């Protein structure tokens, strides 16, 4: 059982439009976060809701004390699911959790939220909270009894914490990688046909070019296209939103005007977040020595150092290439709270324990990846 504190916190469920109407009240809450991310912002959540919201019911919970907003927990339930699982609004497309709590009031906020959920008017079996930052994970597990939740490492979000200048960064890399970075940057300066640019203004023409690169990349072969169908609508909306707020940076590599590679980054609260990127599989036909993906990462990282950016976050995933660039491998966490009763227990076994079991066994994990590869890619 969760034991609520004696507080004067008030929890209310509000429609998303309420957040848009009270956007100024979110500013101090966002500013108080130990590690703010764009996935906590209204432009991001609104873009996701516009593209995918038709399949979900939103349950956006606010916590106020003395009329001041001190917590925001944006949740959703998938429509038509036999065992309803509450999860983050935007789950799947958001690389880190959108939980917003004022740090000095986190305990009181969570006690109030859990009390509200136990008595909530909507039905749920599980509260499944993925991609939690370490500080968010600690907030949650500190407020739950030992037998009241499941928790596990969910993923990693490796990043480069920027300390010093670009030369200081290079000095800490292996001789081979350091030499490769310098060679790529030098070649970009010396090869007239090659253009590296950073674009901050979104256009539909650029989005079409990016989509074509993705279709010609390894992502098409793996069945992991992100910009098809509803994905295009999502990207168009969030790129426009962040461009309007001057928080968008798209790095492009062109060879004689042909777009060969791109990386999409968001510059948010003095940190850069590398959200998506791809390069054409036929890059060697343009230039045998070209490594456009590495060149764009090097260019974006150098720019972040030159501008005194705080961190460059490669976001969720343990892809091997990231290890070459990062100096901190952060863990993300998954916390699951079961509703009382048999339905909650069954949902925990079917949706959580089975998934974690499959993840721990390499053979089953390989089989799951194979099934995803041969299955037609979902465009949503």
Provide structural commentary:
The strands form two sheets. Strands 1, 2, 3, 4, 5, 6, 7 and 14 form an eight-stranded mixed beta sheet that branches. A hairpin with a 2-residue loop joins β10 and β11 (258-268). With 380 residues, this protein is an alpha+beta fold. 39% of the residues lie in helices and 25% in strands. The longest helix has 19 residues, at 342-360. The two termini are 38 Å apart. It folds into two domains: 10-154 and 330-374, Gcn5-related N-acetyltransferase (GNAT) (Aminopeptidase, 3-Layer(aba) Sandwich); 159-313, Gcn5-related N-acetyltransferase (GNAT) (Aminopeptidase, 3-Layer(aba) Sandwich), CATH 3.40.630. Residues 1-6 and 372-380 have low confidence and may be disordered.
Query: What would the average pLDDT be, to the nearest integer?
Result: 89
How many H/I helical runs? 13
Give the low-confidence spans.
1-6, 372-380
Query: Quick one: overall form?
Result: elongated
Give the proportion of residues in helices: 25-40%
The sequence of SSEs as H and E is EHHHEEEEHEHEEHHEHHHEEEHEEHH
Terminal residue distance:
38 Å
Structural class by secondary-structure content: alpha+beta
- Count up the domains: 2
| Strand segment tally | 14
Helix and strand arrangement:
Elements: E1 10-14, H1 16-21, H2 23-31, H3 42-52, E2 56-65, E3 68-78, E4 85-88, E5 100-101, H4 106-118, E6 126-132, H5 134-142, E7 150-156, E8 159-161, H6 166-171, H7 175-190, E9 194-199, H8 204-215, H9 218-222, H10 230-244, E10 248-255, E11 258-268, E12 271-279, H11 292-307, E13 311-313, E14 331-338, H12 342-360, H13 362-374
Parallel strand pairs: 4-6, 12-13
Antiparallel strand pairs: 1-2, 2-3, 3-4, 3-5, 6-14, 7-14, 8-13, 9-10, 10-11, 11-12
């Amino acid at each position: 059982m969760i034991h609520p504190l004696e507080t004067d916190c008030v929890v209310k469920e509000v429609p998303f439009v309420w957040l848009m109407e009270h956007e100024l009240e979110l500013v101090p809450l966002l500013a108080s976060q130990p590690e703010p991310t764009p996935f906590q912002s209204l432009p991001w959540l609104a873009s996701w809701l516009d593209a995918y919201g038709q399949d979900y019911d939103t349950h956006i919970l606010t916590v106020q004390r003395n009329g001041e907003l001190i917590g925001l927990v944006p949740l959703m339930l998938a429509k038509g699911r036999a065992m309803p699982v509450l999860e983050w609004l935007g789950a799947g497309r958001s690389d880190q959790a959108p939980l917003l709590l004022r740090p000095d009031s986190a305990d009181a906020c969570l006690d109030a939220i859990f009390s509200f959920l136990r008595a909530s008017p909507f039905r749920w079996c599980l509260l499944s909270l993925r991609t939690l930052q370490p500080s968010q994970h600690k907030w949650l597990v500190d407020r739950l009894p030992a037998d009241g939740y499941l928790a596990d490492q969910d993923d990693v979000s490796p990043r480069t914490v920027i300390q010093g200048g670009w030369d200081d960064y290079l000095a800490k890399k292996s001789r081979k990688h350091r030499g490769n970075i310098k060679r790529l940057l030098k070649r970009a300066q010396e090869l007239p046909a090659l253009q590296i640019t950073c674009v901050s203004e979104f256009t539909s023409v650029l989005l079409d070019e990016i989509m074509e690169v993705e279709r010609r990349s390894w992502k098409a072969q793996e069945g992991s296209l992100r910009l098809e169908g509803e994905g295009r609508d999502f990207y168009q909306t969030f790129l426009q939103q962040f461009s309007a707020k001057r928080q968008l940076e798209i790095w492009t590599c062109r060879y004689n005007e042909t777009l060969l590679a791109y990386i999409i980054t968001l510059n948010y609260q003095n940190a850069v977040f590398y959200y998506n990127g791809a390069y054409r599989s036929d890059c060697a036909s343009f230039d045998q020595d070209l490594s456009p993906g590495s060149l764009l990462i090097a260019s974006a990282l150098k720019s972040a150092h030159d501008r005194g950016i705080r961190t460059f976050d490669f976001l969720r995933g343990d892809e091997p290439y990231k290890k070459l660039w990062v100096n901190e491998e952060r863990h993300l966490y998954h916390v699951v709270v079961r509703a009382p009763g048999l339905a909650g227990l069954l949902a925990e076994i079917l949706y959580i324990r089975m998934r974690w079991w499959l993840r721990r066994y390499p053979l089953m994990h390989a089989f799951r990846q194979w099934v995803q590869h041969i299955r037609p890619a979902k465009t949503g």
